Amino acid sequence: MAAKFTSESRRRLALVIGIGDYENVRKLQNPQNDAKALSSLLQCIRFTTADQHLDQTRNQLQHVLVDFEDSIQSNDIVLFYFAGHGIQWEDQNYLLPKDFPDMDAADEKKKAEFLKKNAINAQDILNTLSDRKPYVVIFLLDCCRQYFLRNTDLNRGDLNENKYQSVGLTAMHKAGSLVAFACAPGALVDDKPEEKNSLFMKHLLKHLPTPNEDIVNTLQYVINGVMTDSDSKQIPFISVQLRHNNIYMCEQTD
């Protein structure tokens, strides 16, 4: 007789975004590879959809998000993943699209307005996904990177560390969701272009395919792997407000 699991027969939907080919801020090597690898894995473990979007502008991302949100039905298991640059401003996290302008050009007093106009608020995405009443939302952010280094500055070697700084992302919460960050709030990931995948993604790819493993346990294994490989210099962080137990990304019946 087949075993019955909490998430059995539920659709699993994923939106996977990787942005590295930035026009005005430092380019990144890992996000495209990470998004491709995760999307491929999710298809292999039988996600209903695992839409992959690379190097999208803000306008393109907005359309992608609306389409994904509209596809969500009650009781779906929903996974959202973003790799790229992110910024915290006034206790809000913003995800930077490919065409994000040079923020240094914005008036200091109007930077909140600048971000609302040119980036995408991560909490707004989480809220909108949750408003669709899915069974659970798994929200993965691999975007705690140094971002305030313009490509033009890199080309001429003008790196003013006092002028270009980032303090990482702030914690996020939403009932019925699990939010995972590649590193702790306020900390930064050292994006290593010599590696094919980020350290966070390396361990996600290793542990997500484990059959019938609760997502909380899976991410604990990821945290341990990242800490081990980085000598505890990078510590992923998860915020869990799940209403249900036994949330499996890879489910198999006997």
UniProtKB/TrEMBL annotation:
GO molecular function (one): cysteine-type endopeptidase activity
Domain of life: Eukaryota
The Caspase family p20 domain, residue ranges: 10-88
PROSITE patterns noted in UniProt: CASPASE_P20
Matching Gene3D superfamilies: 3.40.50.1460
InterPro entries noted in UniProt: Caspase-like_dom_sf (IPR029030), Caspase-related_regulators (IPR052039), Pept_C14_caspase (IPR011600), Pept_C14_p20 (IPR001309)
SUPFAM superfamilies hit by this protein: Caspase-like
One GO term of the biological process aspect: proteolysis
PANTHER family xref list: MUCOSA ASSOCIATED LYMPHOID TISSUE LYMPHOMA TRANSLOCATION PROTEIN 1/PARACASPASE, MUCOSA-ASSOCIATED LYMPHOID TISSUE LYMPHOMA TRANSLOCATION PROTEIN 1
Protein name, UniProt field: Caspase family p20 domain-containing protein
Species whose genome carries this gene: Rotaria socialis
